[in-house]
Design a protein that fits this description.
heterodimer, A: 787 residues, alpha+beta, Aldehyde Oxidoreductase, domain 3, Aldehyde Oxidoreductase, domain 4, 7-stranded mixed sheet, B: Uridine Diphospho-n-acetylenolpyruvylglucosamine Reductase, domain 2, Enolase-like, domain 1, 3 domains, 14 strands
Amino acid sequence: MAPTPVLPKLVGERVKRREDPRLIQGRATYVDDIKIVGMHHLAFKRSDVAHGRIRSIDTSAAEAMEGVEAVFTGAQIAELLAPMPIGTPFPSPPHRAVAVDVVRYAGEAVAVVVASNRYTARDAADAIVVDIDPLPAVVDPELAMKGQPAVIHGDFPNNLAVALVPSGTGVSADGKVDDSAVDKAFAAAEVVISQRMMNQRLVPNAMEPRGVVAQFEPGKGSMTIWSSTQNPHILRSMIAAMTGLGQDQVRAIAPEVGGGFGAKINIYAEEYVAAVISKRLGIPVKWIEDRSEAFVATTHGRDIIGYIDVAAKRDGTVLGIKLRLIADIGAYNMLLTAAIPTLTMMMANATYDIPAIRTTLTEVFTNKTPTDAYRGAGRPEATYFVERAMDMLARELKMDPADLRRKNFIAPDKFPYVTQMGAVYDSGEYEKALDLALKASNWKGLVAERDAARKEGRLVGLGLAMYVEVCGLGPSSSLPTGGWEHGQVTVERDGRISATTGASPHGQGNETTFAQMLADQFGVPIEHITILHGDTGVVKQGIGTFGSRSQAVAGTALHLAGGRVKTKMAKFAAALLEAHEDDLVFENGTIGVKGSPASAKSFAEVAGYAYVPVPLPPGLEPGLSDEAFFEPANNTYPFGCHISMLEIDRETGEPVLLKLIAVDDAGNLINPLIVEGQIHGGLAQGIGQAMIEEAVYSEDGQLLTGSFMDYALPRATDFPRFELHSTVTPTPVNPLGAKGVGEAGTLGSTPCIVNAAVDALGEFGVTHIDMMLRPEKLWRIIHGGKA
Amino acid sequence: MIPTSFEYVRATSLEDALAKLKAANGSGKFIAGGHSLVPLMKLRLSEPQLLIDIGRIPDLAGISERDGKMVIGAGTVHHDIATSSVIRERCPVVADAAAMIGDPQVRNRGTIGGSVAHADPSADMPAVLLALDAEIHLKGPNGWRVVKAPDFFRDLFTVDMAHDEIIASIQFAPLRTAAYAKLYQRASHYAIVGVAAALHVSGGRIASAAIGLTGAASHARRLTNVERALAGQPLSQQTIAPAAQVAGVDLAEVNSDIHAGAEYRRAMIPVFTRRALESAMARA
């Protein structure tokens, strides 16, 4: 046998993303690339009024247009489709896929056109005349809570989607609240910091807008639906339930998905409508969202007001926190809408050993686009509120911000640590991350640099923030879909490996990281491995990609499935080699007896034998394929420390980010290059929120930042070179020790930048600045009375 | 982009473009880079039935120097202006401003003629052309017409140009001692306030100054009170700083939007006027 090349171990290596060449060469297949003979196109007529009663809809001109197959109003769709379900246990008003009688946000669909091409469909939608009697638009959540200026859903007085949920110290499982510990903490306080903070609304803006193709085949009675979704298996379940088909009769496919950031978890009106129209008319239909629609018809993120109080001793010991949250969730509950702010409550403990915490949450309907998950989903908000407040406390006590945090950290020997909020932090060494950040940034040097700049009259500030994140979602008890993930590994007859994962990626790089793991596990070249995903016809089961769970949960499922196949393959190899299976090594594309590589069989030969097993070893079935469902016992809790340096132009108020140093601990890393890419993206979005991104609504409920002309997405030129470092604290929750990293970048960056801005403007007596750091806002602080 | 349906033709010369426009009988529009027109078509705010592509008319794009004047063809894209060695050498303010427009995609598609004809109140180039007292060379059914920039920009999206005219070129006397400073709107990269300052220097004195302002009001305009305050004065920081103070004080109305309120915009006009003047002085 010819000598085989030595294959390096790949786990932990900076392997370039295998999916990138096709993506950057325009050779990938997105939903809009799906074309089917006879396919028609949908266009939605959308309300340009935020709140109003539909007086009439005249579709006659649209229906008369050549190429128009059908027009459906909301009432007609309602005959085909029940109100849309949500995925949380909270009460929810009926939500029609296409509005009936009342519109509740600008951009809500009021009718849908089916036409032979996209342009005709749009022309026809424009020709529909909708007469809407405007009602007062509800845009301010704190007025909305008083029922002002209107009530949006009749069964929800004062617009309260969730009236008031308490959580934290002294709250029992049945909701009984004992405030004594929290009251005691605040009674003992020598200093109390109180601040209202706004975590503003953001527009997710994936590079690929949403899209769907639905094909009901009347002959088979089955449906195939392609969608730009993060979770095709959930889509399949929901489409089946809503169309009256069985899950066996629906195949959902997420082809290439160009980003999601959480906004493609929700199953949307357009997906249900496409499915029922295809079923009703017996033709395939396509809908592709345009960018203008994406701004209003795809869920938004964040939009939570936090009233925070921190009780502390003058030596910096934090005694207690009260955090009252008001979430502006927009006009309707979507799949996970109501649950997102509960994650803000859950993470109010942050990285600190705090004896008493009371959080309360109120969720409010307004006449805006509904919110749902957006990168970080509740945890960046918690981190922001707590880390801003910690900075205010440090400023009040004239303590170094790092010293204050160090004093309050949960000590490494306290893990697993049960927080006041009931979370069980798996592992953490917060001081190590802080120390590395201080060292890597040369914090003392930065302080000297800042002070020297101030002597020249420049407004330079330093910011620091810790974070702890929830990743690897998460046992089945925490998710209505189940919290496991599925993997299947097949060694093919030629010795190559096909593996399927239920985590359908949209930029995470699973085709690379999962292949790295399997390459090491089987001792074969990575080029011999294909990771399949995103098609429920190919991938037996799955949950999806969200909550930074792919590596920790789906990666583990594949690792376990791979182990099962490897065990069986070793039995076939043992039979061929007349050796004991425990003595075999899989390496360099061969399977052989430890210590005698010359006698090794090629991986392909053993694979071939397993499929034509003559003779069949006793006790074995032919074939090499197995699967695993991995149910994690807990979430994982990665953490880190971000530091920034920022300068504000004294004359104009323009902020410039000079430095960003990030220390992130995501446990064991499979591919540091991909991890860094994830952190870069997260930082960009976290910095974007701090500095330039904000969804602004007018008083009558119009999104004023409805295009890239007015909504700023960060560009490369907006950033300094990020300085990344990591510590490694493996998780005991899964055998890989990997925690997850997809969202982490958005947690520390946002507060550390606002902390730096407040530091820069300290001479003007400011203690808090709401995001975004709009130059005019900073200029007003600088120029105060003389503005 | 899903616009209303339209026909598309490509013009081979200015004469051909004008003939095609006339034949379209009011329903035609010229398109070059499309960076002003296409966004309007996307929103269906503009629904031309015929697009006449002037992007490949020979000699409509290009930069040359003729009789002591810089001549920039209307079809020249911003990127080519920003990177032109002759512009950078002879009249760097124009290259600077071109480099500050939008982003690389915009600069590689958008043209100077399109930007000038569109006259967005926050566009960069009008301020520069005002400061340089540039000429806009137009061709119409009755032949050529030359309009000076201060007469050209008349109101919001309104210029001295008939519907049957086409911009052929922008021409100006090159001047090294000119500079552009702008406060970026962070989403669009248009100017919240943009000021171009041109100083004609002679013997250590400012013989005359021309200051163009964009972003602040309905259309780009000259800051004549600052120009008067500078004329005849010694070229020095002591002259510039107080002169810049009066920038914009005579503006009756100043724009206000979510990115910058009127009060803030007003306050920024003197700041960017001074910065532009300082940079221009540094080139003396």
